[in-house]
Every structure is written in structure tokens, then in C-alpha cells.
């Protein structure tokens, strides 16, 4: 048996020559990888752009995640940002930092995961940058096409709108908890939700077409992200009883709840990284396939003193997610990348 | 005296609220930072995109570079990629990884450096992502507008074309050498070239307008990057005597050469990160302001056996930068991010 080939054994161009052939092409690509920059079509004279980074030992551990998992997740969390604007992803670029001691196979595996996630949605990888570093860092920037529609922002929710969600909730957090407790055998499906999330990306475009007034993808937890819509729109969101409207998720979390002695509500409301689409629709609109109504947009709040701040405890159900006015974010439970 | 405020002392949203106001707006921005994604104008139905990453202890050391320096450099190396396509930068996004022990002032200083470099060229910062990590990583993705022109690729050089360069050569490498030898007082100007490069970005657009047939920015050294044009175009590049055509750079490097006992040729030919524009122009074209002719495109090479590989030594002057055909890169001196 020979020693595995390491990043340090190859020159940058040798490594790139193993990665480039794995990357998917796309119809929007005019100039692909290999020059100073790529050139991408933006048919309606605008493009959507977002960037998201995954950092080893902060967002993933190599002991749990394969290169493929990390590449898949890096792509998916970015594709979800694009979808949440109502855009179809055309292309992405990747800045990859890797330690010289890393196996080359891990890097090509990452490229395969990234490529498969992109290819599933017709997105091309049009460029990248490679650097040495102490830990793996994957910074992806994604570009989307609004196809002539207006972008669906966080700020458009209006009183009377229906709050709806497509995708799953709490699964990624439950999967992570199982991994941390070394109990992944209890529910490989939940662990898979953490390692390779499968957000309903088409639902983002469907929601935009159906006339969604506000949308985001749930990356930091339902409460925190609903709070962002509420804050940006200056409205109050009333969430219906999660045990009723999210019964499917409650059931899916049950094996992990029993194993770890956890209440499902914490994962449902504050678990991040499932990247479902949370959107508001005008009353009477038929919700696109995949969306379920989970609440209602209530009247506008004018007094900032009404602002309710969570500090980690889960409010009683039924609850009110209430954030007002100008505050761009809500201090509540959910993911904070600098908190412990 | 109070202890400096650290990243760990703030929540993510508190930190972002200190960064957002520092970022420059731009005329191409339709939706700026704060939503899932930004929306940027692409008036001619295409956009140019490139990504480049700076990693602590690989591309910079915090002992030498201030936050401002790192932000400036991260922006400039990306702006240069856009310029080298003949595009005007409209916008960029930034993924920033920072250790919790970092001072908040260092981070806001980085934002100021990034902002100043962008504002100088009318580019907006339209989005970003922030994460904790062991070391600072700054991954910037830049977008440019070709204003109806075709992109200037590496592959368009034709026999008879003039090879020309705008900007400086060897300065950044000499500045780094002075820092490494703890001799920065010998030439603060050279050290500044390393810490805050000032590439001639307008020259990229000027070259495109003047009809440049091929172009890139010199980020990995003149020989290596000229080799990339030669390889992509399937031509041979004859560089004239550097002591003649690059006399200004030779003179500028002199103080560092004397102090460190170095020959300027090594820095001139293999020193990277000055980000000057290296372009080829049809014979007879008047070179845009800032460009100096440094060589000539010779006949097409058809035999790959003609390929000349450098392994670190500097060829005799006058020399031939000769790389042929299909090989996407040249193995030669210059920057390799995984080499020692």
C-alpha cells in the first residue's frame, strides 16, 4: 500500500489540473475558469450575488465530514441564498484554503461534492482561488438570474400575509447533536441532514413567481430568521403552534429526542443550517407546492419598547415572534458565529 | 487605559453594525448588504467575476501588515483581476474569517482599507460573510462591467504583437525581502509596495479600448505570467533586455539590492504581487498612457518538445519566454502557493 498523495506533493497547477475537469459547466458561462476572471451572462441586466464561508472546526470537522460533504454543503448554503431572493443560480466561484498535509483525494472529493450540488441545479463553477493555510476554509460566492422578476427581499411582509415554510426544520441541528454525542447510528437520516443538507431550491423561484412578499432561507434558526423578516418589514409575525404546523418535523426529530432526552422545540425553533425557504404571501394566494402555512403577519409595530428579546429560553407555545422596526437583526437564540 | 475591545466581546450583529457603515456604495448597486444576497446592475447583459483569497501567515503577517493594509491589498488584487479583463469593477463581496481574540479595531481598520481601495475606483462592497476561525482569511469576489467590449483574454496574443507592461515590477517582492530581513527602513517605498500595492487599474480598461489582444495582471511574477499568455495563445514571447526596458524598476530596486546583496533581475522577473497589467497589442497601435513596450510576440510554436521549463534559475538576458500550446500554466520561478 502506498502513502496517500498529499497537497504538498503537487504544485498548484498540478492540483488545479485534477480539480478543473470535475467542475460543472453551465449555460450562462461565456468565459469559464483559467483566465484572470470569468464572464457570465446576466440576461436581464442584473445579477444576484451572495457569499458564504465554511471554516474547519467551526462549521465542520474533518472527522465527521468527508471532502464531498463539505463541498456539497458549501454549495448548498450558497445556492439557498440565491433561491431565497427568487433567483436561479447561474454560477459560482470558490476560494479554497487547504493545509499542505491534506490528502489530494480529500480535495478532489470536495470538488465532486461541490460539482454535484451545482449540477443538480444547472449552476456552473466558473472560477476559484487556491491557497495554503492551517485549516480548511471554503468561501463560495454564488450568482443568480432573476429572470426579469423583482428580487424577493426580507422587507416586503405586510399585515395579513401568510407566513409559510418549505423544507425541513431542526434536522441539521439534531444531526449535529447526534454526531456530537457519538450517536449517529440512531438516525443516519438526521446526520445526513447536517452533513448534506438538501434545501428546496426550486421553492425559492416558485415562491417568487407566486408573488411572495418577503423571503429568506432559514440558516440561523426559525426564530432568529423570522425575526429578521419581522425587523426588516416592520411587522409582527405570529407563529402557530409548532407541534401542529410542524408536526412532520417533530416526528422526524423523535428518535434523536428520545436518545438524547431533548425537547424537539429547541431544534425546531433555533436549529440552523437546514436552509428551508421562509416566505410571506398575500392572503388568498395559493401556496406553491412544498410550502406549508405556519403563521400570519400581524399589524405593524411602532413602539420599539414592544421589542421582545430572547436570551436562550424557548418561549411558550403558541408564541409570537415579535421584532419591530429598524433593528436589522434580532438578539435571540440561534446561530451566532462568535458565541460559544 | 482600558483593554482593547475584542471580536469575542461582540455578537456577530454588533460587529457587523460597526463594519456596514464603513463600506462604500456604488452606482451599480440595486440591493446592497443586509439581505440574503445583493443585486447588482450588469448593463450589457454580462458580468466579469473573479475571486482571490489572502491567508494570514501565508500572504501576510499581522506583525507587518495593519488591518488597513490587508483590506487594501485584498481589494486591490481582486480589482486588478477585473481590470486585466478590460472591465471596470462595479462591486465586490467579502468572506472574512477572524479569530475571536482579534481586536475589533483591526477588523474595522480592514474594512476601511477595503473601502478606500474600492471607493478610489467606484466599486461598492455589496455583501459579505463573517466567521470565526484560527487565522485571518479574507476571500474577496469582484465583479466588473465590460461596457459592451469583449473580454481581453490571455489567449489572444498573435505573432507580431507588441508585449507591453503598465505598472511596476519587483517592488512588492523587494519590499517583502526587506521586511523579512528586518531592513524596512532602507526603503519605506518598497515596503509600501508590498503592504499596499497600487496597480494601474485604469490601464486595464485603456488597454482594452486600445485593442489589446491579450492581457493579465502580473500576480505571480513576470516570467510565470508571461508564460501564461504564451501558453494560452500558443506563441513565443521575446522579452527585451530587462536592464534596458525595465530600467526604472531596476533603479527603484537598487537600495534593496545594495542592502541585501541581491541582483535585481530575480525580483524583476519572478517577483509577484505588483499586479501591473501585462498586455499584447497589434503592431502599430499607439500604446495607452502608462504602458511601455518590453518585448515582442514571435511565431507560433507547434512542438510541445520546445517547451522550456525553468526550475528557479534566471535565464541569461536577453531571454526568450517560451511556452507553447496547450499547457495551461508554466512550471517556472514565481509564486507557487504550496511551494516553500
Question: What attributes characterize this protein structure?
Answer:
homodimer; alpha+beta; 60s Ribosomal Protein L30, Chain: A; Phosphoribosyl-aminoimidazole Synthetase, Chain A, domain 2; 2 domains; 10 helices; nucleotide-binding (chains A, B); thiamine-phosphate kinase activity (chains A, B)
Describe the structure.
In chain A, helix 2 packs parallel to helix 6, helix 4 (171-180) packs across helix 5 (188-195) and helix 9 (247-260) packs across helix 10. In chain A, the strands form three sheets. Chain A has a six-stranded antiparallel beta sheet with strand order 8-10-7-11-9-12, with helices on both faces. In chain A, strands 3-6-4-5 form a four-stranded mixed beta sheet. Chain A contains ten helices and twelve strands. Chain A has helices spanning 12-19, 67-83, 104-119, 171-180, 188-195, 201-210, 222-233, 242-245, 247-260, 264-270, and strands at residues 29-31, 38-41, 46-55, 88-98, 124-132, 137-145, 162-166, 214-217, 235-239, 277-281, 291-300, 319-322. Residues 302-340 of chain A have low confidence and may be disordered. The first copy, chain A, has two domains: 7-145, 60s Ribosomal Protein L30, Chain: A, CATH 3.30.1330; 154-322, PurM-like C-terminal domain (Phosphoribosyl-aminoimidazole Synthetase, Chain A, domain 2, Alpha-Beta Complex), CATH 3.90.650.10. In chain A, a hairpin with a 6-residue loop joins strand 1 (29-31) and strand 2. With 340 residues, chain A is α+β, with helices and mostly antiparallel strands. At the A-B interface, helix 1, strand 2, strand 3, strand 4 and strand 5 of A face helix 1, strand 2, strand 3, strand 4 and strand 5 of B.
Amino acid at each position: 500500500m502506498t502513502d496517500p498523495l498529499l497537497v504538498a506533493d503537487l504544485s498548484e497547477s498540478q492540483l488545479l489540473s485534477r480539480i478543473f475537469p470535475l467542475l460543472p459547466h453551465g449555460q450562462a458561462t461565456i468565459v469559464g475558469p483559467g483566465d484572470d476572471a470569468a464572464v457570465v451572462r446576466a440576461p436581464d441586466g442584473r445579477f444576484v450575488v451572495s457569499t458564504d464561508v465554511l471554516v474547519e472546526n467551526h462549521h465542520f470537522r474533518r472527522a465527521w465530514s468527508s471532502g464531498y460533504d463539505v463541498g456539497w454543503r458549501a454549495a448548498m448554503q450558497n445556492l439557498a441564498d440565491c433561491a431565497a431572493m427568487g433567483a436561479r443560480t447561474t454560477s459560482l466561484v470558490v476560494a479554497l484554503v487547504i493545509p499542505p498535509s491534506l490528502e489530494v483525494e480529500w480535495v478532489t472529493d470536495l470538488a465532486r461534492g461541490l460539482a454535484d450540488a451545482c449540477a443538480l441545479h444547472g449552476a456552473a463553477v466558473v472560477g476559484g482561488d487556491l491557497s495554503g493555510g492551517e485549516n480548511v476554509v471554503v468561501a463560495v460566492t454564488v450568482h443568480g438570474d432573476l429572470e426579469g422578476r423583482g428580487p424577493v427581499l426580507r422587507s416586503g411582509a405586510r399585515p395579513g400575509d401568510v407566513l409559510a415554510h418549505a423544507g425541513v426544520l431542526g434536522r441539521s441541528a439534531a444531526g449535529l447533536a447526534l454526531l456530537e454525542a457519538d450517536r449517529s447510528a440512531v438516525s443516519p437520516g438526521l446526520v445526513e441532514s447536517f452533513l448534506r443538507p438538501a434545501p428546496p431550491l426550486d421553492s425559492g423561484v416558485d415562491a417568487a413567481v407566486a408573488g411572495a412578499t418577503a423571503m429568506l432561507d432559514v440558516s440561523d434558526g426559525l426564530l432568529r430568521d423570522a425575526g429578521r423578516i419581522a425587523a426588516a418589514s416592520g411587522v409582527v409575525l405570529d407563529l402557530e403552534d409548532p407541534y401542529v404546523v410542524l408536526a412532520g418535523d417533530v416526528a422526524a426529530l423523535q428518535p434523536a429526542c428520545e436518545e438524547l432526552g431533548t425537547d424537539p422545540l429547541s431544534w425546531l425553533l433555533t436549529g440552523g443550517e437546514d436552509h428551508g425557504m421562509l416566505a410571506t404571501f398575500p392572503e388568498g394566494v395559493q401556496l406553491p407546492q412544498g410550502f406549508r402555512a405556519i403563521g400570519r403577519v400581524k399589524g405593524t409595530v411602532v413602539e420599539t419598547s414592544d421589542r421582545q428579546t430572547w436570551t436562550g429560553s424557548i418561549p411558550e407555545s403558541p408564541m409570537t415572534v415579535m421584532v419591530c422596526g429598524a433593528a436589522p437583526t434580532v438578539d435571540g437564540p440561534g446561530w451566532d458565529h462568535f458565541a460559544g
